[in-house]
Amino acid sequence: MSSTLYQQIQQFYDASSGLWEQIWGEHMHHGYYGPTGNQRKDRRLAQIDLIEELLKWSEVKGAENILDVGCGIGGSSLYLAEKFGAKATGITLSPVQAARATERASAANLNTRTQFLVANAQEMPFADNSFDLVWSLESGEHMPDKTKFLQECYRVLKPGGTLIMVTWCHRPTDKKALTADEQKHLEDIYRVYCLPYVMSLPEYEAIARQLPLNNIRTADWSTAVAPFWNRVIDSAFTPQAVLGLLLSGWSTIQGALSLGLMRRGYERGLIKFGLVCGNK
Questions:
Q1: Residue 269: Cβ within 10 Å count
Q2: Residue 123 has what DSSP assignment?
């Protein structure tokens, strides 16, 4: 990962994570609104439901040692550690996020079973075969080398363990290449959210097969999560949120002003919410 991209991602999340927690709570990922996207529910419940639906879909019923790649402020790490009575390690590029996740672990009396580190997901500081569940929820889009990222996830996964990766994708391009307008739309998203690029779900599946993961499954949950962005937009422009935006700096303000990019991306079928799971 280039030092420039590393710094951009770090600074983006250092600046925005406090505001996100204030408005939304500890989970920094999409919510689940049912297979057709029509279920009406509290936005935080929708985010918990996403975690539970992912576990159900991947048939993960337990874990002893979990790695949360791109852990944010520890939302998934702490939830999974408590649910399974497991140890959990979270990694992030943001020192602010790692410190806040550590604070939250102490408050939840989970500090003896969890740790949060500042680390690069493409060069993880862990031994081979360390974790029986590697969980990556909306971090793959930040990785400049998707193959290297998945190779690292595979390397630290124990034999028999499960990898669950959920990431922003663009539509498949096997039948029709991306148009110039679609490329421009994606580039606008990349610039705002510090992404090097995204790829299609079939491309991720091809990498997973080369690792080689076993029992590979993929799914497109775009319809189930698309309402999330309307909820985010509604919450981003309350008086409380606007004040927080002004205090958080330009990158956070720019992100808020560009929320419609993601909503429109889903509406036009360009942005996809891709799932991959498999076993080592």
A1: 11
A2: S
Is the pLDDT score of 242 beyond 60?
no
Query: Measured between alpha carbons, how far is 105 from 82 in angstroms, rounded to an integer?
Result: 10
Distance CA 71, CA 51 (A): 13
Contact indicator for 27, 44 with CB cutoff of 8 Å: yes
Tens of pLDDT, residues 146-171 = 999 999 999 999 999 999 999 999 99
- The pTM of the full predicted model, rounded to 2 decimals, is 0.91
What percent of the chain stands above pLDDT 90? 75
Q: Looking at the DSSP assignment, which residues form a beta bridge with residue 115?
A: 89
Give a three-class secondary structure readout of 134-173: EEEECCHHHCCCHHHHHHHHHHHEEEEEEEEEEEEEECCC
Q: Residue 248's pLDDT is what? A: 63
Look-up of token digits 């799914």: 219
Q: In whole angstroms, give the CA distance from residue 12 to residue 16.
A: 6
Give ∠ CA 239-9-67 in degrees, rounded to 5.
105
